[in-house]
Amino acid sequence: MLEEHISRINELAKLARERELTREEQAERQSLREAYLANFRKNFRDQIEHTVVEYPDGSKVKLSEAYRKDQGN
Question: Is 46 helix (H, G, I), strand (E, B) or coil?
Fold first, then answer.
């Protein structure tokens, strides 16, 4: 997400504390929040998918595979 979008979210949050937002501002804030959360979820999912678990025997497996392996026990 662009830094300018995050700055705009913060500006709207500050305005909301000072006064009631217009319908356009509320819609913009909601749209920016949804985009921010979608980006956060995507980045978090990518991070989890690239996480590796190393077992004491030295073997390494992706986190999703390790979860399935542990569920089998």
Answer: helix
